[in-house]
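From the methods appendix. Each design record in this collection lists the tokenized structure first, followed by the designed amino acid sequence. Records were kept in a plain field format so they could be parsed without special tools. The example shown here is representative of the layout used throughout.

RECORD:
FOLD TOKENS (183 positions):
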């Protein structure tokens, strides 16, 4: 990977130009989020995970995306308001981006190139098919709430299927293992 994840330009949810550089040295869970998805209640678990592990050098970073069945139709302001009023989200949110396709954001291109396959995505792929939805082929993001785990040094070390919540044992174990490593 030529460019560090920390140097890829992003915008915060309020539109401020930024990078992930302020999070360097932390273990990151980067998640593409949506407000009108069956998985939207995962915001609650992600918030709890963030608040529980933040002091250890952990952050959840939410990237709203409208790539899957128009489940994130709102503006950045509407998304921010929804996250605050519905789930009291305290972790950082960024401006809406595209996580798949021709207009895929460079951050998600880097994430999917580094970890082409998501752990535990088989059952969710089958569930999408049962709803008549043809799942994206790997390495594309499968759906909302797919999770990428980034080490303190900026390496994408794991990727988790959308249906694996913040309390999933394999996800928590992977986060704890990364937190136990010193930068």
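DESIGN:
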């Amino acid at each position: 990977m030529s460019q560090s994840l920390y140097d890829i330009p992003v915008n915060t949810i309020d539109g401020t130009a930024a990078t992930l550089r302020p999070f360097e040295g932390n273990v990151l869970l980067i998640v593409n989020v949506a407000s009108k998805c069956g998985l939207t209640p995962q915001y609650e678990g992600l918030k709890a995970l963030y608040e529980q592990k933040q002091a250890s050098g952990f952050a959840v970073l939410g990237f709203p995306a409208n790539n899957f069945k128009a489940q994130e139709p709102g503006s950045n302001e509407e998304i921010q308001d929804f996250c605050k009023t519905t789930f009291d989200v305290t972790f950082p949110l960024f401006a809406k981006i595209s996580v798949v396709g021709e207009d895929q954001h460079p951050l998600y291109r880097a994430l999917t190139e580094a970890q082409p396959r998501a752990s535990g995505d088989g059952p969710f792929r089958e569930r999408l098919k049962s709803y008549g939805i043809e799942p994206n082929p790997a390495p594309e993001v499968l759906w909302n709430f797919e999770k990428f785990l980034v080490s303190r040094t900026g390496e994408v070390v794991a990727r988790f299927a959308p249906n694996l919540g913040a309390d999933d044992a394999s996800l928590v174990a992977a986060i704890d293992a990364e937190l136990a490593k010193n930068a």
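APPENDIX NOTE: The radius of gyration is 15 Å.
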